[in-house]
Fold this protein.
Amino acid sequence: MKVLVTGAAGFIGYHVSRKLAASGNADVLGIDNLNDYYPAALKRARLAQLEAHKNFRFIQADFSDAAAYGGIHANFQPDYVVHLGAQAGVRYSIENPAAYVQSNITGFLNVLEAARAHPPRHLVYASSSSVYGAGARIPFSEDQAADRPLSFYGATKRADELIAHSYAHIHGLALTGLRFFTVYGPWGRPDMAPVIFSKAITEEKPLRLFNEGRSLRDFTYIDDIVDGVLKVLLYPFAQNTDAAPGEPAAAPSRIFNIGHNRPVEVRLFVQMLETLLGKKARIELLPPQPGDMPETCASLARIHAAVGFEPKTPLEDGLARFVEWFKAYYTHSQ
Ligand code: NAD
């Protein structure tokens, strides 16, 4: 099978591409524009690992360029598309909204238009726990309203879900949105808490804890995310689970959470890192940041019922694997 993975040089795209390429059952084409939201050296290091697989190929391209991306999709004619490329990050979206419109709205539309011209069997795309905004009930379940995002990033992800829903119905495309919950693990993003905190602890610099470290996050290990993505991608399905009564079910349009369902206070997360790194953090307690959610927790009932997904990695084990990679990568690359 031919699988096109966008954002293949990114954190999750790298892991999904690696798993697919290592399976031996897939020809994987990775697309990424290698933007400098965070150091491209990390993206190139991930790609170097992927390029060791003979069934992985990479093209540097920007999917906000409709002609360039459409040409790549048309040439490859993928059976499956895993769309993981995006402008990520909650805080950055406050000052840089245009970057989110370009990649997450215009870019997403280009990905759907390319799929419309040469339909894959299934296209899955990354959404986010950030779509659950003010007033969402814990645990977050997919059937509650998600129309009050607290960040602009969350608003663009919710817009993607709505756009996908309309494309599934109008054009008969099989589209599934995956709401990921705070993903961590080896090769993780340098703008996210695990790397930021581990650097601060290692370098004995102040570690800033917003909301005084009392926010709860449903940290989800990368291997569990990959498992969920591939289970959903390849699972045969026939019905439109997201259709309202009376709405045509021309093609499936679905949304699933992929999380851990075990939220942990961020200050406890820091204590676990201190133990693993063998150093105390210099903690600075700060008030909540705009756009941040006080708690995230995924209900996994829907994805469990549909594809049997269950997260397998306890935070202790996943963090130990993350810290092992962190020490090796940051010692080697500094
Ligand atoms: P990432 O930033 O590491 O990866 C995204 C990749 O997309 C980057 O390599 C970037 O260069 C590429 N990209 C961005 N705009 C592009 C464009 N216009 N054309 C081509 N490539 C482009 O992020 P990630 O953590 O791997 O996240 C993957 C997806 O999952 C994103 O959609 C993100 O919003 C979503 N998500 C991630 C998390 C998490 O905790 N990591 C949580 C919820 C949702």
